[in-house]
Specification:
The chain is of the alpha/beta class and about 375 residues long. The chain has 14 helices and 13 strands. α3 packs across α4, α4 runs parallel beside α5 and α7 packs across α9.
Amino acid sequence: MHVVLAGGGTAGHIEPALALADALRRQDPTVGITALGTEKGLETRLVPERGYELGLIPAVPLPRKPTPELITVPGRLRGTIKAAEQILERTKADCVVGFGGYVALPGYLAAKRLGVPIIVHEANARPGLANKIGSRYAKFVAVSTPDSKLRGARYVGIPLRRTIATLDRAAVRPEARAAFGLDPNLPTLLVSGGSQGARRLNEVIQATVPALQRAGIQVLHAVGPKNELPHVDNMPGMPPYVPVPYVDRMDLAYAAADMMLCRAGAMTVAELSAVGLPAAFVPLPIGNGEQRLNAQPLVNAGGGLLVDDAQLTPDWVQNTVLPVLADPHRLYEMSRAASEFGRRDADELLVGMVYEAIAQRNK
């Protein structure tokens, strides 16, 4: 069996694809896996690091919304569809699983031409153009939110790294807090704006740290590798404030924390709900509003708070987040609500869909 994955460009597309690849290999170590990618995408580093073959095709950026530019897309896609076809033929692909992004649409169209079964996975509450088109040709559509508008979709969640999907926060907490130099017993706020950081979150939390410390709250702050680390002057006897450029062990960061202040990317929302970590979500104020839609179901379930970027201020953190951190019962209830909403088995459910799609083709 050989499966081709189409989800390059950003970590939000690549990580679910790699989580599926890992799950496929756990079930059958002999399965062949090839990931489609472009020369400039993160997949050029992430896919080989995880031990999978990368098949490169030309990049054709897609407009996020219907615009006059759409008219030029078919012509620009011809070469990249042909390149994707050649990879599918070379690998004798039994199935294409797409996760959106630049490489997904050529993968879908190449698979359609060759009669290869297509599975679409959409991580965001508001689907992107590639997956909207791909879902028309796919018999199997998997989504991360129960109220997706994609036709015939199955709610499975987002495939997650095993270190996240199997995380027992309570069991790992002592090790995690020691690893970051945090107090083992104090309420802990984790702050991160994603892999690159978020200036707005950084500025607000730095202005709020003294008030949090006076209230007995310690802070682990991932500022982003390109942002300047703030000066730290932890007074003796005060809870620690630990700023770091980047966290490469998010499982430990989640285990160390009681609550998180963060953006609302689909992967972040999925991971936090899976591990049962309550969060205050600050959706990115640009784009098509998908981050608010990503967070809203979890917030509605009681597992998080939601605030507009413009409304995020030191006062809001002190008046809204701090009382939650100071209330163990509310933290417990929010954590339980998040856990009940979260899905830890999306990778295995998607593996089942792969086998189902291939079985139908072979009938």
